[in-house]
């Protein structure tokens, strides 16, 4: 039997925890203010405490250091109706065990009680400096994200952030850095998709003078620049396979060898990666090394698309409006109808699209009130997913195959039609894949779902070998 204290001014919360706790065989004592709770604590030190953040008089966060002083071994679960990133960070920083966002279910309470009593205070330290409210979100999904950011910041493990474009992956990476122990060291953000594929390796690892035609002097790469701090690799799935191998080596050995160099430079950076692609899928398709994913994916944060958390739209709109008010030094408001309209839209471009829409509307709203007619037209899904382009390529291919077949028949070239078509298609596909996969048969075999020796045989058959192609 454990001794549990609940400090909350909402009697229904006290009641629910008391009822469940008693049912589980624990002794539960309740208090409705922090002051009463501290008195209770002087009488008996509980095995677990539930503490509301918003209390009349002294707040839960103010009471927390006193609780820790009186009863240092007691795991504390913070309860908040207004959970935000700062609360999450502060909660973890102060060594609280967990925090619950209202409304929560009986199952949530039971999970927390079971975990706390089993583990007895496993919370870790994070630094509180530079707390900022850049990441906005009141939805439960975002509260979970804040909680994971706080936990990620308290460790130095590699982190993978997954989410559609515009969901705030870079902001999350910045927050992990800002709240972490390396916050006063560099934060180096690199969007791999924005680099020319042929330059990715030298941009990441640097190069020595003379390594290639334009390498007129030694250059430090992003990995070296991030030394001591955090390296954020956005769109990490776009790193070519050979460079992935080099990145893995650098992470394992904490040493960076510049392109054209022979000696490695010791470096120590924390790596945070992001991708809008499912990296496990990329591994299945052979475009991402499984050992690298294994190395990077110690802890994952998934950012839900904005359309799955519409309750975040009003606070985000007000956040962006507030920033514009400050930038343009003029008050800005939004009509209820315009806000309703924004809440209804699917936001395939996520928060970035919403931010752009607010900025667009602000320019047109000369009176300072954003109305429906000031909003831009919703952007088509295909614009973000590229499905229309892909469909039209597929359509073109189909049409071309029909056209080619007709032409062959017309010209009386029907002999071995199937074999001729197959070799035509195979050759083009293999040629493209050899280029994409830097000549590695194994990677091509994974993508095609056929055996490596078949790939090799076919490449030889079509004369696609070149002396500089590496055989994995
Ligand atoms: N929760 C949020 N609160 C406030 N601003 C946000 C939030 N999420 C995203 N933004 C804003 O939306 C824009 C896009 O965010 P960010 O660049 O972090 O997204 P991303 O997921 O990294 O996008 P991409 O994958 O395209 O690089 C930025 O202006 C960012 O400030």
TrEMBL record:
One of its GO terms (cellular component) is cytoplasm. The modification 4-aspartylphosphate is found at residue 52. It is found in: Cytoplasm. CDD domains: AAA. Keywords: Activator, ATP-binding, Cytoplasm, DNA-binding, Nitrogen fixation, Nucleotide-binding, Phosphoprotein, Repressor, Transcription, Transcription regulation, Two-component regulatory system. It holds the Pfam family AAA_lid_14. Residues 135-363 form the Sigma-54 factor interaction domain. GO terms for molecular function: ATP binding; sequence-specific DNA binding. Gene3D superfamilies: 1.10.8.60, 3.40.50.2300, Homeodomain-like (1.10.10.60), P-loop containing nucleotide triphosphate hydrolases (3.40.50.300). GO terms for biological process: phosphorelay signal transduction system; regulation of DNA-templated transcription. Residues 3-117 form the Response regulatory domain. This is DNA-binding transcriptional regulator NtrC. It comes from Bremerella volcania.
């Amino acid at each position: 039997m454990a001794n549990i204290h609940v400090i909350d001014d909402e009697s229904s919360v006290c009641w629910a925890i008391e009822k469940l706790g008693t049912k589980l065989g624990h002794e539960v004592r309740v208090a409705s203010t922090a002051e009463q709770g501290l008195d209770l604590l002087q009488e008996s030190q509980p095995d677990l405490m539930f503490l509301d953040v918003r209390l009349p008089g002294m707040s839960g966060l103010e009471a927390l250091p006193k609780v820790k002083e009186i009863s240092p071994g007691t795991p504390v679960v913070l309860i908040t109706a207004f959970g935000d990133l700062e609360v999450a960070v502060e909660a973890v920083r102060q060594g609280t065990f967990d925090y619950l966002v209202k409304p929560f279910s009986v199952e949530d309470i039971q999970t927390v009680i079971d975990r706390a009593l089993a583990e007895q205070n496993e919370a870790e330290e994070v630094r509180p400096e530079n707390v900022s409210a850049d990441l906005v979100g009141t939805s439960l999904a975002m509260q979970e994200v804040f909680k994971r950011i706080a936990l990620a910041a308290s460790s130095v493990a590699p982190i993978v952030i997954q989410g559609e474009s515009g969901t705030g992956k870079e902001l999350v990476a910045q927050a992990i850095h800002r709240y972490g122990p390396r916050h006063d060291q560099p934060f180096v953000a690199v969007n791999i998709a924005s680099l020319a594929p042929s330059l990715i390796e030298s941009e990441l690892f640097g190069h020595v003078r003379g390594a290639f035609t334009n390498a007129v002097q030694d250059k430090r790469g992003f990995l070296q620049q991030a030394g001591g701090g955090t390296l954020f690799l956005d769109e990490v799935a776009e790193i070519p396979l050979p460079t992935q191998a080099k990145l893995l080596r650098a992470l394992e050995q904490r040493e960076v060898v510049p392109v054209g160099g022979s000696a490695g430079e010791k470096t120590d950076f924390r790596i945070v990666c992001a991708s809008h692609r499912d990296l496990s899928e990329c591994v299945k398709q052979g475009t991402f090394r499984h050992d690298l994913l294994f190395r990077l994916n110690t802890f994952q944060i998934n950012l839900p698309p904005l359309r799955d958390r519409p309750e975040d739209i009003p606070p985000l709109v007000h956040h962006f409006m507030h920033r514009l008010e400050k930038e343009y030094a003029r008050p800005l408001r939004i009509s209820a109808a315009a806000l309703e309209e924004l809440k209804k839209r699917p936001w395939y471009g996520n928060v970035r699209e919403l931010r752009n829409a607010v900025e667009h509307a602000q320019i047109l709203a000369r009176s300072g009130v954003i109305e429906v007619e000031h909003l831009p037209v919703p952007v088509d899904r295909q614009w973000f997913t590229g499905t229309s382009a892909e469909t039209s390529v597929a359509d073109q291919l189909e049409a071309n195959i029909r056209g080619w077949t007709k032409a062959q028949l017309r010209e009386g070239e029907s002999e071995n039609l199937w074999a001729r078509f197959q070799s035509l298609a195979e050759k083009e596909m293999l040629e493209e894949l050899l280029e994409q996969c830097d000549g590695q048969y194994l990677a091509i075999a994974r993508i095609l779902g056929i055996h490596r020796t078949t790939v090799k045989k076919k490449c030889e058959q079509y004369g696609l070998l070149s002396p500089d192609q590496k055989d994995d």
